[in-house]
Amino acid sequence: MEYNRLYFIERLIREKKYKNYLEIGVFLGKVFFYVSANNKVAVDPAFRFGLWRKIKRVFKRWSNLGAKFIEKTSDDFFANDAP
Predict the structure, then answer these.
(1) Is 58 strand, coil or helix?
(2) Per residue in 49-68, pLDDT tens?
(3) Contacting residues for 9 by C-beta, under 8 A, at least 6 apart
(4) Residue 82: which pLDDT band, with cuts at 50, 70 and 90?
(5) Which residues of 59-73 are buried (b: 16+ CB within 10 A; e: fewer)?
(6) Rounded CA separation 55/52 (Å)
(7) What is the pLDDT of residue 2?
(8) Counts for the chain of helices (H) and strands (E), in that order
(9) For residues 40 and 32, is the Cβ–Cβ distance under 8 A?
(10) Is 27 left (phi over 0), alpha (psi -120 to 50) or beta?
(11) Which residues are within 8 A (CB) of 23 and not within 5 positions of it... i.e. 6 or more apart?
């Protein structure tokens, strides 16, 4: 895992009191599943994990319970799903 990146993201969320986290290009979820945020959205055209990994990660970090996983390109996401 990329601990420096995770540390920076967690610190930013905590200090700025951010509630939302969007990660583009999640792939295996090495950082995404460890970030604590109230609202988490993962965007990737081809996730490399399944339902079982999502379920296991909920028990490690409760913020994964309500996470949204959108399987499409970032261009499609920003054109059709992002407010």
Answers:
(1) helix
(2) 999 999 999 998 999 999 99
(3) 21, 31, 35
(4) confident
(5) eeeebbeebebbeee
(6) 5
(7) 63
(8) 3, 3
(9) yes
(10) left
(11) 31, 32, 35, 40, 41, 42, 43
Q: What's the one-letter identity of residue 48?
A: R
- 41 pLDDT above the threshold of 60: yes
Strand 20-24: give its sheet, edge to edge.
Answer: 20-24, 39-43, 68-70
CA distance 42 to 23: 5
Q: Which runs of consecutive H residues, i.e. helices, occur in 1-83? A: 3-16, 51-60, 74-80
pTM for this model (two decimals): 0.88
Q: For residue 44, which phi and psi values (nearest 5 degrees)? A: -160, 140
Q: Are 34 and 58 a contacting pair, CB within 8 Å?
A: no
Residue 43's φ and ψ, nearest 5 degrees, are -125, 125
